[in-house]
Amino acid sequence: MTERIIDHPILGKMEDVNHVTFSFNNRVYKGLENESLAAALLANGIRTLRYQEESGSPRGIYCNIGHCYECRVTVNGQPGIRACITPLKEGMTVESSGQLKIKEKEV
Amino acid sequence: MFKAIIIGSGPAGLTAAITCAENGLDVLVIDEYMSAGGRLLGQLYEQPDGSWWNGLRESKNLYTTAISLGVKFHFNTSVNNIEKRNNRWVVYTEKGTFYTENLLLATGAAESPVPVPGWTLPGVMSVGAAQVMTNVHRVKPGKRGVIIGVNVLSSVIAMELHLAGVEIACLTLPKMNSIANKEGNPSQVLDSLLHVSHMATSPLIRYGSKLLKNDFIKNLGIHFYPKKGFKMWNTPIQLRKAVIEIYGKDEVEGVVVAAIKANGEVVPGSEERIQADFVCIAGGLYPLVELAALAGCPFFLVEELGGHVPLHSEKMETPLEGLFVAGNITGIEGAKVAAAQGRTAGLAMAIHSGIKGLDTEIRHSMDMVKQTRESADIQFHPEIEVGRKRILREWEISQTSKQNHEALMG
Ligand SMILES: Cc1cc2nc3c(=O)[nH]c(=O)nc-3n(C[C@H](O)[C@H](O)[C@H](O)COP(=O)(O)OP(=O)(O)OC[C@H]3O[C@@H](n4cnc5c(N)ncnc54)[C@H](O)[C@@H]3O)c2cc1C
Ligand code: FES
Question: pLDDT higher for B261 or B348?
């Protein structure tokens, strides 16, 4: 399980956090409002965001700033959304896009 | 229709926006990210005077200033194309089309990939991705990582990860192959690091090499700075070993490293496994120039600037009227240089839109760019000055031939 850095020796404590609930592949998780979807998922121990269309091999974030499109997911029914640059909102429904097989990771 | 449109809200774009707004222009800034700051957001390091460069705070300050001056922002908006039509620049985004007579491209830099076998496994990310996760989102990229690629940026980010309580098993090289050639050759990597140290005329460049004061340098008997090294920094750097594979079933479980000879060849039988739950790839930075290419701007390959850069003047104009560039799109340098360039670009845009009396100010701002460069915190290429001169010479050549052409036609 990956951890949040609540207290940082230079950056200090995390401020203004507002918890929201969202779902990923039909499971419910908690995250922080307006953090990136990729960050919210990683904080919940989830690295695999999709399965490659042809090979079915698992993929996660690579660049984390919108350049590489490795982190594409479906958000509220809209496919091809980059998880690394999409702010998390209450009630978001997120699904792995392009998957041929879904492997549920136990968290 | 806006008097000025700026693509990219990094230090260059934000400073340009503030400068334009201060001179009475109405400005729109477009960025595909969720918030303002660009690559400044994740920056965090101790400066030679002991104070901390906190990119998150710097970004907030610039953004607040811009907002107070009435600058408009569209975040979460990717620009797909730009073109010139009827003397106006047309900016096509996924959320509509915008028009202006003064367009600034401040799209920054991207990281070069280094394809190591296994690099598509979840848990493998660019070193910048780990920086943003840690310092901006405050989520650890993992418990224990390996960084592939030894350069100034990966050294700084290793320190940042360490600071946040993330263990870095080691910094090491990728195995040489045709693509990863330069990043994988230990003597070349060492050469470039040594080069930076020898160039350490400014205290801030020393900062970069101070980070590299560690076991491997001691083993080699090289002491650039016999005084105290960087206190929080104790991650081993391996230049005699290289990652030959990243392994894991569904996610990263570790890397296989092997001893390499000075020419980068693997010593057979020397393979060993290092466990890690994430891997960072540090292949270096190159200017993100796609939009300038789409606009039809001429390019030059200048290695010292990090790759292909659009032709531009010291006032940050391109040969295309009304199109300006600033920041890392013009060459890879630190945030303070990018901001200084942004100020010059903002003044040039104000002048182009008809504001008078800015001549002294823009000359002063061009001097500031040079001064900032000379005392830069972090230098990505030791010969940056050579690269800058080269592009300015190309600009002069293009202007002279333009004048000759006009004289001929006239
Ligand atoms: C991973 C990484 C780490 C770095 N660390 C340091 C460091 O520690 N210290 C240092 O001095 N320098 C560092 N740098 C160098 C850094 O590039 C400069 O410091 C500075 O941020 C460059 O400023 P800029 O304004 O040119 O571009 P950036 O800060 O890169 O900002 C560019 C902005 O443009 C946006 N953009 C790009 N293309 C589009 C598009 N098509 N549509 C919409 N928006 C777009 C991006 O989302 C981004 O916000 C780092 C660079 C990278 C890539
Ligand atoms: S991780 Fe590269 S676009 Fe999201």
Answer: B348
